[in-house]
Amino acid sequence: MRNAVILATMLAVTGAADARSVTDSAGRTVTIPETVQQVYAAGPPAAVLLYVLAPDRLIGWPRAPSREDERYLPEAYQGLPETGRLTGRGNTANLEVVLRAKPDLIFDFGAVRGAHVSLADRLQAQTGIPYLLIDGRFEHTAAALRLMGDVLGVSERAEELAVYVETLLAELADALAGIPEERRPRVYLARTASGLETGLQGSINTEIIERAGGRNVAGADPDERSRRGLTQMSAEQVILADPDMIITWDREFYAQVWGSPLWSPIDAVQRGRVFLAPTSPFGWIDRPPSINRVMGLRWLGSLFYPDRMQLDWRREVRAFYRLFYHVDLTVELLSRLTD
Predict the structure, then answer these.
(1) Quick one: fold of 2-169?
(2) Which residues contact 171 (CB under 8 A, 6 or more apart)?
(3) In the chain, which segments carry CATH 3.40.50.1980?
(4) Residue-wise DSSP of 307-319
(5) To which CATH superfamily is domain 179-336 assigned?
(6) Which residues of the chain have pLDDT under 70?
(7) What does pTM read for this prediction?
(8) Are 175 and 309 in contact (CB under 8 A)?
(9) Burial of 337 by CB count in 10 Å (0-12 exposed, 13-18 middle, 19+ buried)?
């Protein structure tokens, strides 16, 4: 530990000459190097945001991508080390791992209050490495892009991506205008192979479904509205909810739902209204809840309101992956997203 403290002090001193102050989303004033070259992403959402903005600054992946996901990444970023995560469930990194990576900056993208602020302050004090918190709420996506774009010195790219997001949100607002709540589709998110894990209304897991104009059937009971996050449904609860559409990213569930007597009574199954969300290289619904959900928002809008938000599937997906993920999709890769 003594060596770690010495190294932290050295890092702090060498970075002090050319530095500037930045106010993060938590209102913390943090001194960062004038030029940020190496960045430690505290968790998967931060890693996606960093990869989208400036992939050359990414030290490693908090969780290594699968072989399938790597197909959708340029070769230069496929072999990056797994660094572990500092925040959230399953945090695996420690101070020695962080210090060995020698980052100019640590940042997290998500919650910016309470325990997250305490963790950031503590790790910054222990390591001497600046630690920024960036608000991960979807409505603040454009602001997050611009803030990190300034931090990383890639403001022009950040502005291009922020305008893309703002344009999509404006298109969606126009599409939803005048559609009363009772006429919007009732939607169930089926997570895991059983399909019985889902996200309650207002949870980060179903945020994109709800923002796209879908009515989440989970947690509709007034007694449930104070709760957020994931929950287990019974088969009887799903049958009783009888959603108009089912969204899933689990291929095993999608493969078996059509012939399952458990799910056959549900209107969405009977009418073929079960849809598989792509997950490579990052999920369209969550997994993780980061900027990757922008493509999911466009896709869901076209599913829910095809007469108001038309989607040229091949053209739009290719354009998004080129702009956000730095990759030109082949016909094979495009087809693998939903095959």
Answers:
(1) Rossmann fold (3.40.50)
(2) 301, 309
(3) 2-169, 179-336
(4) TTS---HHHHHHH
(5) Nitrogenase molybdenum iron protein domain (3.40.50.1980)
(6) 1-17, 89-93, 220-227
(7) 0.91
(8) yes
(9) middle
